[in-house]
Each structure stands twice: as C-alpha cells, then as structure tokens.
Specification:
Radius of gyration: 17 Å
Oligomer: single chain
Strand content: 25-35%
Low-confidence stretches: none
Largest sheet: 9 strands, mixed
Number of helices: 5
Distance between the termini: 42 Å
Length: 203
C-alpha cells in the first residue's frame, strides 16, 4: 500500500472511486466526482497536492486541494481548501483517510499558511482544524453572526491573516449544475439515487 501523486492514467478510476464513495451519502446521488473531473482543467487546481492511495495496483483513496480566495472587502488573498477526499467503501474505518490527510497537510504546510475545509468538525478537529469563525473568517453564503462549525481552518502561520472579517469563496468550479452532473453520469455504471434519513436536509 502506498501514497503517490495522481497521474492522468488514474483519472477514470479516481472518478469512479469518488462517485461510489459519495453516492447517496449527503444527497440522492452525488456530484463530487464531477467536481474532481472539472478541477483538473481549472486554474484553481493544486496538482502537486492531488494524491492517491494504491493497494496492489488498485486506487483505494484520493484527495484534492484547490485555490479559492478570502474577500476582505478592500483586498482579496488566495486561500486553499481541502477536498473532496474519498476512500473506497471496502477500505473505510481503517485509518487510511487520516493517513492521506496528514500526509498532504504536511506537504501543504511547506507552501501555504493555512488550509480550509468544509466538513464534519468532529472528524477534522483531529487534524488540527478549528472553527474559522475564531479568526473572523466565514464561508460565502453563511450568516456571519452565527457559528458555522463545519467551516474550519488548519493554521500553519498567522502572518497572512488580517485582523478583520473575511469571506472565503470556493473555486468557481465547485458551483455545479445538476443537469450537467446527470449528463456526465451517463458515462458511469447506473446507480440508483435514493433519499435517506441520514442525508443533509434542506432548511
């Protein structure tokens, strides 16, 4: 089992992995694999942080990073975000996701002062992530007057942070159209979309 950089020969296998890992988890179907597909041709993509875990020639894990920005109203600064990250369902709960995240965070710390992530705070806190609101940083589209524990930051160096509120914007490629996802999905094996009680609910 080894961790290595993703290459072009991995693309189809990675997209299948990501699709299967996210299918019906947060919503009926998934769109994370479509984001992964589009990221590779987008200027926001950080190619030298796209890694896979391989076991006997099979890709069982994958992680991406990309570049968004913080809007401080009077200035904008680049900022990177972790994800999507996916582990093959047959290899989950074995610490492989943690291994992949820790490995790439160490690499990211050499070139970036901090990393954002949007996800489960109970999971990502083990990697040193904390609520971004503690640094007056908020995710675009959320209420700056309310706590958003799912929007977190892993800080390596505070020097690039400003002493004022800022709004983080994901890369544009994260804004997807469901019709485009459905069309893209025709290339893959059919999977039934299901509505499950465990999925995210619209408020």
């Amino acid at each position: 089992m080894k961790i290595r950089l993703e290459n072009e020969n991995d693309y189809w296998e990675v997209e299948n992995l990501v699709r299967n890992s996210f299918w019906n988890v947060y919503r009926p179907g998934a769109f994370e694999h479509y984001i992964v597909h589009n990221l590779r041709d987008d200027e926001s993509f950080i190619r030298n942080l796209a890694y896979v875990i391989e076991d006997n020639g099979k890709i069982i894990g994958h992680i991406n990073y990309s570049k968004g920005f913080i809007d401080y109203t009077d200035e904008k600064i680049d900022a990177i975000v972790l994800g999507p990250v996916a582990i093959d369902e047959n290899y989950q709960n074995k610490g492989l996701g943690s291994k992949l995240i820790n490995f790439t965070l160490k690499l990211a710390s050499d070139n970036f002062p901090f990393v954002f992530v949007i996800g489960d705070e109970n999971y990502y806190s083990r990697f040193g992530f904390q609520s971004a609101s503690e640094y007056n940083l908020f995710l675009e589209g959320t209420d700056v007057n309310e706590e958003s524990p799912f929007f977190m930051i892993r800080l390596f160096d505070e020097k690039n942070l400003k002493d004022k509120p800022g709004i983080f914007h994901n890369p544009e490629v994260f804004n997807i159209n469901q019709r485009d996802v459905d069309e893209f999905d025709k290339q893959f094996e059919f999977k039934q979309k299901m509505i499950l009680d465990s999925q995210l609910k619209e408020i």
